[in-house]
Amino acid sequence: MNFIKSLFSQSNPQQKRVLQRNAAESSILDIQFTQVRLQDIKIITKDLRKLEEILKYQPETINEQFKRCYSFHVILSSDQVQSIEKIVQYFENYQQNYCKQTFQNTKSKTMATQNINQTNMYTNEQKMITVQYQNSMFLNVSDQIQLFEQINQNEKGFMNIYFNYIQRITQNNDIYTSCRFQQYPIQDDAHNRKIQFMWLFKIINLLNFKLSFIPYFQFNFKHKTQNTFIIRDIAYLVYKDCLVEYSFLRNEITDMLESYSSFQIKESLQFYELILIMKEVTNKMNIFYEMRSLFALNSASVRDLKWFTIEKKQMIEIDNYISKIKLLNTSQFKKSLMIQNQKYVMENSQKAFQDSNQLDNSFKKEPTTAKNIKNSNECLYSPINLKLFKIGEHSRQQSRNFKNL
To answer: pTM to 2 decimals?
Structure first.
């Protein structure tokens, strides 16, 4: 009897093959898995062919997209150089192809949208009427549908910016890897203040981009779905990146607090800007730190965070120092403008003087000889000219007397 039961209980060969195939497949591409096993990520880092298959694979669902990007994120944060180069090369090609496709699609869609807009307006009006009618009849159902759409939009929006973040890591892989070792991408840059500030601002941009994920995490953890498990894993990985970059920024800026008075004017202004931005980043990091129990199964695994702090007295001194620098900078700028105006006036006066000399020189002048002087005196003091001069004076006196009458 048991023998007969065993015959019926045995599965057919096709079912065995399906089970073997599912066991051999990776959790990254398997629909049955909502999360990714770390073992599968280790396998694709060692086998580059399987990594290429995952890179070429086009995901169909949001869960597959999350798992695929999460796998890339884990590899980029590892020390596997060959697999990292593969991912970087893939995203470089993706960026080039994406730019070409968007340029071609914008050309082809401009004519089509003009014709479709009129029909869309009519259909949208009909939809609005039907939706209003349904909402009036089924309020509870409409609320649930609206919530479902919000959850779907939140997951799609987070998926887009998370994919963009993985792309940014590939573009700034030198910064991403150097922060894990708490150093600059190039060791010589540690002694060059200008390049040092450039790297720090780039790290702040990456950190601020990650901190923009917080509203998506808050909404998803409040409204749980099947993708919440993989989003928790992503949040834990993103939080670790934030800790690394934040600690590096904190250490570098605190070291500069002791020698900021020796900076040049431009460097001191950049340093002051770094302090103000770092305060805002600290507030956002505090929100992320308070959320750690939502995405970390064991909150003890998330190490405590040393915060960036400045004493109130020291901050007042920095504010006063920067205000003096700005005042001196503006006064020097005004002096430079005044000097330029004075130079401009002097140059114009010299040009005018030269032009007048050129005009005077353009007329022909007779030589001042004794004969010419005698002729001029005779013309002035001749009896005829004196008589005319007296007649003129007599006429002026009469006109004055007439006015007095």
So the answer is: 0.68
Q: In the prediction, which pLDDT does 392 show?
A: 52
Mean pLDDT of 96-101: 66
CA distance 344 to 166: 56
- CA dist 159 and 314 (Å) reads 42
pLDDT at 205: 94
Task: Report the alpha-carbon angle 28-67-43, nearest 5.
Answer: 40
Tokens found for residue 147: 């919530």
The three-point CA angle 251-253-255 to 5° equals 70
**Both tokens of residue 241?**
């990146």
CB 209 within 8 A of CB 286: no
Spatial distance between the Cα atoms of 309 and 282, rounded to a whole number of angstroms: 9
Residue 266: C-alpha distances to residues 200, 260, 323, 326 (Å): 15, 11, 13, 10
Closest to 249 (Cα-Cα) out of 293, 300, 306:
306
Query: Which two three-digit tokens encode residue 392?
Result: 């003129």
CATH class, 172-339 region: mainly alpha
- What is the identity of the amino acid at 221? F
Boundaries of every domain in the chain: 21-109, 172-339
pLDDT at 145: 82
Residue range 183-225, pLDDT digits in tens: 888 876 667 888 899 999 999 999 999 999 999 999 999 998 9
**79 phi and psi angles, rounded to 5 deg:** -110, 15
Place of tokens 């999460």: 70
Q: What percent of the chain has pLDDT over 70?
A: 61
140-154 pLDDT, tens per residue?
Answer: 666 778 888 889 999
Strand ranges inside 261-327, DSSP E? none
| 203, 253 Cβ separation under 8 angstroms | no
Does residue 67 contact residue 32 with C-beta atoms inside 8 Å?
A: no
CA distances from residue 370 to 51, 366, 380, 401 in whole angstroms, order as listed: 110, 12, 16, 44
The answer to whether the CB of 248 falls within 8 A of the CB of 85 is no
- Please give the pLDDT value at position 309: 92
**Half-sphere exposure at residue 293, Cβ-oriented, CA atoms within 13 angstroms:** 1
